[in-house]
UniProtKB/TrEMBL annotation:
<keyword id="KW-0479">Metal-binding</keyword>
<dbReference type="InterPro" id="IPR001486">
    <property type="entry name" value="Hemoglobin_trunc"/>
</dbReference>
<feature type="binding site" description="distal binding residue">
    <location>
        <position position="75"/>
    </location>
    <ligand>
        <name>heme</name>
    </ligand>
</feature>
<dbReference type="GO" id="GO:0046872">
    <property type="term" value="F:metal ion binding"/>
</dbReference>
<dbReference type="GO" id="GO:0020037">
    <property type="term" value="F:heme binding"/>
</dbReference>
<dbReference type="InterPro" id="IPR012292">
    <property type="entry name" value="Globin/Proto"/>
</dbReference>
<feature type="binding site" description="distal binding residue">
    <location>
        <position position="51"/>
    </location>
    <ligand>
        <name>heme</name>
    </ligand>
</feature>
<keyword id="KW-0813">Transport</keyword>
<keyword id="KW-0408">Iron</keyword>
<dbReference type="InterPro" id="IPR009050">
    <property type="entry name" value="Globin-like_sf"/>
</dbReference>
<keyword id="KW-0349">Heme</keyword>
<dbReference type="Pfam" id="PF01152">
    <property type="entry name" value="Bac_globin"/>
</dbReference>
<dbReference type="GO" id="GO:0019825">
    <property type="term" value="F:oxygen binding"/>
</dbReference>
<protein>
    <submittedName>
        <fullName>Globin</fullName>
    </submittedName>
</protein>
Length: 159
């Protein structure tokens, strides 16, 4: 009998919660020195890095911690609403996060980085779009949690 090989999730490949928390803790340590980003995150919750790590971890195939403890994707959408983020801020967020991924030793193989960057591009562009929405006018609590993988056809909402 042959052994069936299982493909690890992006979450597993990245190194799980410890690696993602290391990434986002270091990233948000760097944000106050960034002129384009510091004001956006000036009033950040002390646990913001851990919450973002849990959200990204869940999207990449990890445990459903963010959904169970913080309200899932609908909650994340509401966090961005009314912030009026710019594409210039989004691009700096992206570049700083990828610099930080290198700094903390996140896997840098082409397959992982391609999938990871794909998610960050998609998610950060969605955040800019959502930041233009009025919180009072939008109360959609049914937004499904995205699921990102190695590039399977179907988009982030296919389970």
């Amino acid at each position: 009998m042959s052994e069936q090989k299982t493909v690890p999730t992006l979450y597993e490949w990245a190194g799980g919660s410890p690696a993602l928390e290391r990434l986002f803790v270091r990233f948000y340590e760097r944000v106050p020195q960034e002129p384009l980003l510091r004001d956006v995150f000036a009033q950040m919750d002390p646990h913001h890095a851990q919450h973002v790590a849990a959200f990204v971890g869940e999207v990449l195939g990890g445990p459903k911690v963010y959904s169970e403890e913080h309200g899932g994707h609908a909650h994340m959408i509401r966090k961005h609403m009314g912030r009026n983020l710019t594409d210039e801020q989004r691009r700096r967020w992206m570049s700083l996060l990828l610099e930080t991924a290198d700094e903390v030793g996140l896997p840098d193989d082409p397959e992982f980085r391609s999938a990871f960057v794909g998610y960050l591009e998609w998610g950060s562009r969605l955040a800019v779009i959502n930041s233009k929405l009025d919180l009072a006018a939008t109360e959609d609590t049914t937004a499904p949690m995205p699921q990102w993988s190695w590039g399977a056809v179907g988009g982030p909402y296919q389970g």
